[in-house]
Specification:
The protein is α/β, with parallel strands linked by helices and about 260 residues long. It has one domain: Rossmann fold. Helices cover about 45% and strands about 20% of the residues. It contains eleven helices and eight strands. It has an eight-stranded mixed sheet, with helices on both faces. Strand 1 and strand 2 form a beta hairpin. Helix 5 crosses helix 7. The longest helix has 14 residues.
Length: about 260
C-alpha cells in the first residue's frame, strides 16, 4: 500500500493485531528485511513496516536528505494512518531514524529498540561515505553488493546461506542511487550522542559481536547515553543480526516489547 505523506508517496505494509510496532530498515534494503520479525510479532502486535525515502517502492527524490526529513516521513505516515503512539524498532540507518524520532516526538514513542546502529559519524568517516556515494553514481549499486554483504554477515554464515546472499544482494542492487546518496548524506551528518540523555522511552540496544560497520563500541555509547537503556551483544552475528541470528533477535525484541 502507498500513502502520501511529507510530500512523497510512502510504501508500507501492516500485519497482525495488537499494540503497534513500527519497523525501520537499513540503508540499501527495504521493508522485506523485516519479514522474520514481522511474522514473529504478528500474533501479538500490529506491525507497521515502511520503505524509507529513496528505498523500495517509496519515492526516491534527488537528495541530499536529512534526518529531520526522514523523521518527518515517519511522523507523516503515522498521521495519515491515524496512529498516535508506537513502539519503534530500527536497525542501522533505521536505528538512527529511531533515535531521532524518540527525541523529536517523545509523546509518540512507547518502547525503543536500536539495533546495529550508531549515534555519531566521526569526521574521518565522511570521506568513506563520499567515496561510496561516488561509486554508486558512477557504477550503480551492483558495485556495492560484495563489500556490503561482507560487512553485513559473518564469512561462515554467508558461505552457508547463498540463497539469503542472493536475496539481500538483490535488495542492494535495486536501491535507487538517489536514495542511497540522499540517505548517505544524512548519515554523514549524524551527531546525536550528546542529546540522547533526553530520551525517555524504555530502550533496548542490540548489536552483533562481529559487526565491523557499527561495532559494539557504537552501541555501548548509545546505551550509556540513554537513561536506563539495556545493551545486548549477540554472539556470532554481524550487521544484519536480525537475519543471521533471527531466533535470538526475535526473542530479545519480543521479550522486551512484552
Amino acid at each position: 500500500m502507498k500513502i502520501k505523506a511529507n510530500g512523497i508517496d510512502i510504501h508500507y505494509e501492516i500485519s497482525g493485531k495488537g499494540p503497534l510496532v513500527t519497523l525501520s530498515h537499513s540503508l540499501a534494503s527495504d521493508l522485506t528485511m523485516w519479514d522474520g520479525l514481522a511474522a514473529a510479532l504478528a500474533g501479538r502486535y500490529t506491525v507497521l513496516r515502511y520503505d524509507t525515502r529513496g528505498h523500495g517502492a517509496t519515492d526516491a527524490p534527488d537528495g541530499p536528505y536529512s534526518f529531520a526529513q526522514l523523521v518527518g516521513d515517519v511522523a507523516g505516515l503515522l498521521d495519515q494512518l491515524s496512529i498516535e503512539r508506537t513502539h519503534f524498532v530500527g536497525l542501522s540507518m533505521g536505528g538512527m531514524i529511531a533515535q531521532h524520532f524518540a527525541l523529536a516526538h517523545p509523546g509518540r514513542m512507547d518502547k525503543l529498540v536500536v539495533a546495529s546502529s550508531s549515534s555519531r559519524t566521526p569526521p574521518e568517516a565522511r570521506a568513506i561515505w563520499d567515496e561510496r556515494i561516488a561509486v554508486a553514481r558512477a557504477q550503480g549499486m551492483q558495485a556495492h553488493v560484495e563489500a556490503t554483504l561482507g560487512r553485513w554477515f559473518t564469512a561462515s554464515w554467508r558461505a552457508s546461506h547463498p540463497e539469503v546472499m542472493a536475496r539481500i544482494g538483490a535488495l542492494i542492487t535495486a536501491t535507487p542511487v538517489a536514495g542511497y546518496a540522499g540517505c548517505g548524506a544524512a548519515i554523514c551528518d549524524l551527531d546525536l550522542t550528546d542529546k540522547l540523555a533526553a530520551v525517555r522511552a524504555p530502550t533496548l540496544v542490540l548489536v552483533g559481536a562481529d559487526d565491523p560497520g557499527t561495532p559494539p563500541a557504537s552501541s555501548e555509547a548509545i546505551a550509556r547515553a540513554i537513561p536506563g537503556a539495556r545493551l545486548e551483544i549477540v554472539p556470532a552475528a554481524s550487521h544484519l543480526l536480525n537475519i543471521e541470528q533471527a531466533a535470538t533477535f526475535n526473542r530479545l525484541v519480543g521479550d522486551f516489547l512484552g
